[in-house]
Write a structure and sequence with these properties.
Layout lengths: L1 H19 L5 H8 L3 H29 L1 H21 L3 H19 L1 H11 L2 H33 L1 H11 L3 H5 L17 H9 L2 H30 L4 H8 L1
Length: about 250
């Protein structure tokens, strides 16, 4: 149980931490590419929608082929998306890399996959606590990674910073092996197709209310995360102050 919780928390810390710092790239990318801020914001919106749409798919693939395989694929896609963000020369290409690729990768490297492993490997009386720890890891990732990303941009320039993060996200691959589960687990429990699971979820009022709550939460957090760093820079704050304020 400890190994699952440790590896899962580390993965969420890294994947969510990188995501929370994307707003730091708005100003340098739009200024160098000559784009409007709307171009960058659109890509971030696509990213979050792609994450939401791909979440059930990532969970289904993790259940069928193993969470550790889904995490490895997600890490590879995440790294590719970050690297392509650095070289995307058009708004469309940027929406594809920072939006579609990174969004889909986040679905495969965050809660949709990690919670499933925790739920299967942690005793019921400790399950809520363990999932809370994993959720806190995402917030801790923001606390740690945003200042780090601000420092990377300030010292390496924004393109090299993205390449460094593309390499860092590959740390998910060895961590994923810590979440390998016995093959017999796939054969236990009630049989239910993905379509049946989706139908059951959308027929549950509590699930719909929870989803609406997360939608509101995600909308405001991403809006602030994307636009606040540039707003602070407009007001004359330097990279270090922006990193601290963003956290």
């Amino acid at each position: 149980m400890f190994q699952v919780l440790l590896c899962g928390a580390a993965i969420v810390t890294l994947s969510m931490g990188i995501r929370h710092g994307f707003g730091l790239w708005l100003a340098p990318i739009t200024m160098e590419r000559g784009w409007t801020r709307e171009t960058f914001s659109f890509a971030m919106a696509v990213q979050n929608l792609a994450w939401g749409v791909a979440g059930p798919v990532a969970g289904m693939l993790a259940d069928r082929y193993g969470a550790w395989r889904a995490l490895i694929v997600g890490a590879l896609v995440y790294a590719a998306g970050l690297a392509l963000m650095a070289v995307s020369a058009t708004g469309t290409a940027f929406a594809g890399s920072a939006g579609l690729l990174v969004g889909a990768a986040q679905a495969g490297t965050t809660y949709a996959v990690i919670y499933g492993v925790i739920g299967r490997n942690v005793p019921a009386d400790k399950r809520s606590w363990a999932m809370g720890v994993a959720a806190a890891a995402g917030s801790f990732g923001q606390f740690v990674m945003v200042p780090v990303e601000s420092w990377l941009i300030g010292h390496l320039n924004w393109q090299n910073a993205l390449f460094v993060l593309a390499g860092a996200v590959m740390l998910i691959v060895p961590l994923a092996f810590g979440l390998r589960e016995p093959a017999y687990q796939a054969g236990h429990g009630p049989k239910q197709s993905a379509t049946e699971a989706v139908r059951e979820a959308f027929g549950n009022r509590s699930f719909l209310l929870l989803t609406a709550g997360y939608f509101v939460c995600g909308f405001q957090v991403v809006f602030i995360g994307v636009h606040m760093p540039s707003y602070l820079k407009d007001k004359g704050l330097g990279p270090e102050e922006i990193g601290r304020a963003h956290v």
